[in-house]
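Q: Could you fold this chain for me?
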Amino acid sequence: MLTALILADLVVELYPRKPHAVEQKVLVVLWHLLGTMTSSGSLPGAGGNIRAATAKLSKALFAQMGPSLLAHAAAQPPHIKRSLEEFLEIAT
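A: Sure. Below is the predicted structure, expressed as structure tokens.
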């Protein structure tokens, strides 16, 4: 959970200078979190709730990337895109 919170802060700082690197490295983490998180907000086999940290990371990326984040999400499985939209409170 701490990693996602730290990544959210780093996204805000690094994206303006290194957008490609952030997209290449951080999106992989976001897709993993969105794809493996259970409906209760936890990760299988891990303790704690990752939902708030994943929401913060999603919103930080959207703040920097805008609609291109959703374009990247379109290439992911539908449940990942849907989870991202839920975090961003976007009606589909």
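A (continued): The CA atoms of residues 62 and 69 lie 6 Å apart.
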